Amino acid sequence: MAIIRILANLTVTELDRAQRWYTTLFGRGPDARPMDGLLEWHLGESLGVQVWAEPERAGRSAMVLDESDLDARATQLDRAGIEHEGPLDATTVRIMPLTDPDGNRIVFTGPLRG
To answer: Who contacts 67 (Cβ-Cβ below 8 Å, separation ≥6)?
Structure first.
């Protein structure tokens, strides 16, 4: 027995609005719609993100995504019109937190410079 896949799950109030925002964030539409109220983006062979319409829990989710090029991601977010504070140095990594329209927290991380 082994766990072979992980999906981060973010809860939102309105699926259409969330689909537009996450499509902008990831640069493409969802890869799957497994059931009513659920969208999935497959970010790798065994990892992905689910966006689930559950208004009573919306905005209480968070996920951390390791990014290979945090500066390029910041530029992509700027072009897409997604607000962020830019990459910030933390203790052992750089981070770039942002918030979706429902208040869910997404944190991109990357290596410190130098």
So the answer is: 73, 96, 108, 109, 110
Can you give the pTM of this predicted structure? 0.92
Instruction: Give the contacts of 53 (CB within 8 A, at least 6 positions apart).
Output: 11, 12, 13, 14, 15, 18, 37, 38
Residue carrying the six token digits 């072979």? 4
Output phi, psi for 8, to 5 deg.
-70, 145
Alpha-carbon distance values, 1 to 4, 6, 8 (Å)? 9, 15, 21
The beta strands (E) that lie in 27-79 are given as 32-35, 38-44, 47-53, 62-66
State which residues form the domain around 97: 6-111
1 occurs within a structural domain: no
pLDDT in tens, 48-96: 999 999 999 999 999 999 999 999 999 999 999 999 999 999 999 999 9
**CATH, residue 73:** 3.10.180.10
Which H or E element spans position 83? Answer: none
